[in-house]
Amino acid sequence: MKKNLIATFLLAFISVSGMSAAQLTPSDSVLKFTYVPSQGGFVSGSSLKLLFKLEFDKGWHGQSHTPSMEGLIPTVLTLEGSEGITFGRVAYPKGEMVKFEFSEEPLSTYAGTVYIGATAALSPDMAEGEYSIMATLTVQSCDDKSCLPPSDIPVTVPVEVLALAENVKPLNADIYANNKKLFEQGAESSGASSSGEIKEYFTSNGLLLTYLFIFLGGLALNLTPCVYPLIPVTVSYFGGKSEKGQGQLIAHAIFYLLGMSAMYSALGVFAALTGGMFGELLQNPIVTIFIVAVMLGLALAMFGVWEITVPSGLQQIGGKNREGYFGTFLMGLTVGIIAAPCIGPFVLGLLAFVGEMGDPFMGFTMFFALSMGLGLPFVFLAIFSGSLSSLPRSGMWMVWVKQAFGVILLAMAVYFMEPLLPKSFYHILFGLVLVFGGLFLGFLSRASTAGAGFKFVRWAVSLSFIAIGAFIAYPQNVNDGPRIEWADATEQAIDASRKPVIIDFSAAWCLPCKELEHFTFTDERVVEISDKFDTFFADVTTSGNPEMEKLKKKYGVVGVPTVLFLDSDGKEMKDLRVVGFVSADEFLSRMKKALE
Question: In CATH, what is the architecture of 2-173?
Answer without folding.
Answer: Sandwich (2.60)
